[in-house]
Protein: LYR motif-containing protein 9
Amino acid sequence: MAPLPGAELVQTPLQLYRYLLRCCRQLPTKGIQEHYKHAVRQSFRVHSDEDNPERILQIIKRAIEDADWIMNKYKKQN
Structure:
């Protein structure tokens, strides 16, 4: 189960970045939203020099799985 519709369409790092920022907007409080936005931005910068297509797809898949876990975590609390 993806956190937002369209996860299956994410194929590039920029699409992933936008997707994850949209996920952040769904989180319950402003503080939590800012925390995860910061984490998304940091991860994007860390991996910005990655040029191996297989590794990029692996990062995208893992990031979507992590976003799913985070969204479910906060959904259960509400």
Notes: Helices lie at 13-25, 30-46, 53-77. The mean pLDDT is 91.
